[in-house]
Write a structure and sequence with these properties.
Elements lengths: L1 E2 L2 H14 L4 H16 L9 E5 L3 H15 L4 E6 L7 H13 L4 E4 L11 E5 L11 H12 L3 E5 L23 E5 L12 H4 L1 E5 L5 H6 L4 E4 L1 H7 L14 E5 L6 H13 L4 E6 L4 H7 L4 E4 L17 E4 L7 H13 L5 E3 L2 H8 L12 E2 L3 H8 L5 H15 L2 E4 L5 E3 L5 E4 L11 H14 L4 H20 L9 H16 L3
Parallel strand pairs: 2-3, 2-5, 3-4, 5-6, 6-7, 7-8, 9-18, 10-11, 10-13, 11-12, 13-14, 14-15, 15-16
Antiparallel strand pairs: 1-9, 16-17, 17-18
Helix pairs in contact: 2-3, 2-4, 3-4, 9-15, 9-17, 12-13, 15-16, 15-17, 16-17
């Protein structure tokens, strides 16, 4: 699915009106009716409503929704916040229709003292996606009154005060804290950021039938990876496949204190389809690895403690390095040597390989084009040299991919994958139970395995992230978010692959 910035959505609206054709107010009515039809099943038959409408098109939506509720006999109080006495044309049309069909229900207010929140459910229609600066004055007062009301709050399109993309300079006290947000056609980019969870609540995406040609015509660099996208990437396996045709992966992982990371990553690589897997570990890890992963070929490092010797990579189809590696000087030197001898082999770097990159920035000059880097947020700070969050971190992620021509997998909810072409792809699978030690090691193994099987780096990263999250969702069916551990992800990979191959 294509994702758009708010200004681009306005362009899609305009093109929809041209291509259907449809008048803007009729498009507003259509969107509001979809909202209304989604709202009714989510509340009880006795729910009363307090609708708070602004003077723009989001307020127009709120007034149409008020009319629809009143016409089926629901108790609704409607407050129109209009301090300047000026409404957008569509908002004025919505007000006129409401006053004709359900007269006497609208109270126009110019101060927060006039607002009486007396319904069970507040419908927030104060501001929509057109907002480009923090709320202040009367509007900020009304938002605080909504948040202090203790009522169930449902926002139209997005919570009032929240901007569609960057909220780093926003006044966070002047944003509605919605329990539910019914958003039109596309999730807003700001919904995908963890700091905004407290404002958006549970998000539902409403299909308001924006024109397909309009959506196709507007270019974007943001995408949401859905099941159909992952299905299109997953290749069928030949009936005549054998271990030699399914790729030989090399995993360099582990240290004396971190053998488990190598085991988890190795198991997930094998469960993800590579035909052969060689794991290089320090000699102190050899016995436990052979016992834990008997299917893997073990290559022993010269050191008992850590990664210290770069192997010859000629016979391998892809290389993964980093899980549990440690950050000793010997490992830094060995990583540098590995990059020298890697040749054209696809590479995925994770964990301590990234920490070493952060400590030794000169290694950037050796990293091959299309290498996949899989940092969590703290590791991303170390490799980027910049401490930032939210939308700014995405922009830095894109910059890093373009500058170094690498694929960056920034892990977390809605894991973002940036490509060398500057596009950013958000994942839709996974759950909070995956916030557990070793989860990233499992992801490294999956991506390494896909690379060894010949998947293009961008495809290996995107599909690997999707399967990783899907395995977490399968595991959650047998566990809880609290009890889920990384080994459960490995055990659920088969189910994730199998379900992805089922065509709907």
């Amino acid at each position: 699915m294509k994702l758009f910035q708010t200004e681009q959505v306005k362009r899609i609206d305009a093109l929809t009106m041209r291509y259907e054709p449809i008048q803007s107010y009729r498009l507003m009515e259509r969107a509001s009716r979809v909202f209304f039809e989604k709202l009714l099943p989510s509340v009880s038959e006795n729910t009363s409503f307090c609708v708070i409408a602004g003077s723009g098109n989001n307020g127009g939506d709120a007034l149409v929704i008020s009319r629809l509720l009143l016409m089926i006999g629901r108790p609704v109080s409607v407050f129109l916040v209009n301090p300047k006495g000026q409404l957008s044309p569509d908002c004025q049309s919505a007000l006129s229709d409401l006053n004709v069909k359900c007269p006497g229900h609208v109270v126009e207010i110019t101060s927060s003292e006039q607002l009486v929140i007396d319904g069970d459910c507040v419908i927030d229609g104060l501001f929509g996606s057109g907002l480009n600066r923090p709320l202040s004055g009367l509007y900020a007062e009304i938002v605080r009154k909504i948040n202090d009301s203790g009522k169930w709050v449902v926002s139209i399109d997005l919570p009032s005060g929240l901007m569609g993309e960057d909220n780093n300079s926003n006044d966070l006290q002047s944003i509605v804290r919605a329990n539910q947000t019914f958003t039109f056609q596309f999730p807003k980019l700001s919904f995908l950021l963890p700091e905004n969870e407290q404002y958006v609540g549970e998000v539902s995406i409403l299909d308001i039938q924006l024109h397909g040609k309009a959506i196709a015509e507007v270019e974007t660099g943001f995408f949401l990876t859905e099941r159909e996208d992952a299905q299109a990437l997953l290749r069928p396996r030949s009936r005549f496949a054998h271990k030699g045709s399914c790729g030989h992966a090399l995993l360099i992982a582990g240290s004396r204190q971190m053998t488990g990371a190598a085991i988890l990553s190795a198991r997930s690589a094998l469960r993800s389809g590579c035909g052969l897997l060689t794991v290089q570990v320090p000699s102190s890890c050899r016995q436990v690895l052979q016992i834990s992963v008997p299917e893997a070929i073990v290559r022993t490092d010269d050191s008992e403690e850590c990664f210290s010797t770069a192997p010859d990579c000629v016979k391998y189809n892809a290389v993964g390095v980093g899980p549990g590696l440690g950050t000793s000087d010997a490992s830094a030197q060995a990583l540098s040597q590995l990059l020298d001898v890697l040749g054209d082999k696809p590479l995925v770097m994770d964990a301590d390989a990234l920490n070493l990159l952060g400590q030794h920035p000169s290694l950037w000059n050796k990293i091959p084009k299309d290498t996949i880097l899989t940092p969590h947020p703290k590791e991303f700070e170390r490799i980027s040299g910049v401490k930032c969050d939210g939308y700014a971190r995405w922009m830095k992620q894109i910059e890093l991919s373009v500058q170094h021509q690498v694929v960056v997998v920034l892990k977390g909810a809605y894991t973002s994958v940036s490509f060398p072409d500057g596009s950013l792809h958000f994942n839709t699978t996974g759950n909070a139970g995956m916030a557990t030690a070793g989860s990233g090691d499992v992801l490294t193994g999956i991506i390494l395995s896909l690379l060894a099987q010949g998947y293009e780096p961008c495809h290996a990263a995107t599909l690997g992230v999707w399967l990783h999250g899907a395995a977490g969702d399968c595991a959650l069916a047998e566990q809880s978010e609290e009890s889920l551990v990384a080994s459960d992800l490995v055990g659920s990979l088969g189910k994730a692959f199998r379900e992805l191959r089922i065509k709907n």
